[in-house]
Design goal:
The protein folds into two domains: 185 residues, HUPs (Rossmann fold); 106 residues, GMP Synthetase, Chain A, domain 3 (2-Layer Sandwich), CATH 3.30.300. It is globular. Helix content is 40%, strand content 18%. Helix 2 crosses helix 7 and helix 4 runs antiparallel to helix 5. Strands 3-2-1-4-5 form a five-stranded parallel sheet, with helices on both faces. It is built from ten helices and ten strands. Strand 1, helix 2 and strand 2 form a beta-alpha-beta unit. Bound molecules: xanthosine-5'-monophosphate. Xanthosine-5'-monophosphate binds next to loops.
């Protein structure tokens, strides 16, 4: 039987050797729990689900069925990386679902942030359940639940987003191989499993993805402006050695326009807002002050390379009073 609670005496996994020992133990446990049955996993490409996938691939190979739902709100290059790492490099049984049109059609014209979140979450469950129903002989559902999820749901701080929420008719037994780990331990295990650094050490990314950064009603062109500006920001942070140091950094494109000038002609385009923050607990957040030279460079790149952007703003507001995300 899998261990449901983190033993009080458990040593913190901080070294490759401890990670290797955990991996060996989990593989044996997973083999014993699952046997020759099949397991389904929603693989977002985030660190938790990626580590769960890598562990299960080692334990049961093709009997793990990974479903990657592209809802159109992922960062640039993410769906491609999931396919490259899991299908091409790890030879996983991966179903890629292009649900971009489906999500964006449902979100068209929706301005209320909570409504947007509800549509994205609900649609995700529907798409996943539809894929699950097409498959035969699945008995287990793997989840990237981690120990803080359990602690926070027990303390009533947040609903445990990794559990529940799936339709009743999908009656699976749960497989949760990183359930007793803290986030930093998941990363050490991910590294030992050979996952790429940009997957293992990536910054937090909200479930509704770029949808909450395309403020107001999501349109394809403005969503593309969010995605392209985010890619430039991430590239520059990596070049400047800030990628592993700043806790979270991203761009936001609100739904209003201002006047500008390009090649002697008037423009009337969106602003791009840059937000870079640090925190330990996400309840209180401070702003990272960027070097002036980097700011100049970001402004130049974003206004010249991203269609529809003619102005760059910086969000210098801590939390409180602002939240991290704009929606
Ligand atoms: P806020 O905006 O609440 O963000 O200050 C705190 C942290 O949580 C992330 N975040 C989310 N993560 N689903 C998620 O999985 C969400 O709906 C969501 N909203 C915010 C945010 O990126 C930040 O790291």
């Amino acid at each position: 039987m899998p261990i449901l609670n983190r033993p009080e005496t458990m040593e913190r996994i901080t070294t490759p050797a401890l990670a290797e020992a955990y991996i060996a133990e989990q593989i044996a446990d997973l083999k014993a729990q699952i046997g020759d049955k099949k397991v389904l996993l929603a693989l977002s490409g985030g660190v938790d689900s990626s580590v769960v996938a890598a562990l299960l691939i080692k334990a049961i190979g093709k009997n793990l069925v990974c479903v990657h739902v592209n809802h159109g709100l992922l960062r640039k290059g993410e769906p491609e990386q999931v396919i490259e790492v899991f299908r091409n490099q790890m030879d996983a049984n991966l179903i890629y679902v292009d649900a971009v049109d489906r999500f964006l059609d449902k979100l068209a014209g929706v301005t209320d942030p909570e409504q947007k979140r509800k549509i994205i979450g609900g649609e995700f469950i529907d798409v996943f359940a539809e894929e699950a129903k097409k498959l035969d002989g699945i008995e287990f559902l793997a989840q990237g639940t981690i120990w803080p999820d359990i602690l926070e749901s027990e303390a009533g701080i947040k609903a445990h987003h990794n559990a529940g929420g799936l339709p009743e008719e999908l009656q699976f037994e749960l497989v949760e191989p990183v359930r007793i780990l803290f986030k930093d331990e998941v990363r050490v295990v991910g590294k030992a499993l050979g996952l790429p650094d940009n997957m293992v050490y990536r910054q937090p990314f909200p479930g509704p993805g770029l949808g909450v950064r395309c403020v107001g009603a999501i349109t394809r062109d403005r969503l593309e402006a969010v995605r392209e500006s985010d890619a430039i920001l991430r590239e520059e942070f990596a070049k400047w050695g800030l990628a592993g140091k700043v806790w979270q950094y991203f761009t936001v494109v609100p739904d209003f326009r201002s006047t500008g000038v390009k090649d002697g002609k008037r423009t009337f385009s969106w602003p791009c807002v840059i937000r870079a923050i640090n925190t330990t607990d996400v309840m209180e957040v401070t702003v990272e002050h960027l070097p002036a030279e980097l700011i100049d460079h970001l402004v130049r790149r974003i206004t010249t390379e991203v269609p529809g952007i003619n102005r760059v703003l910086f969000d210098y507001t801590p939390k409180p009073p602002a939240t991290v995300e704009w929606e």
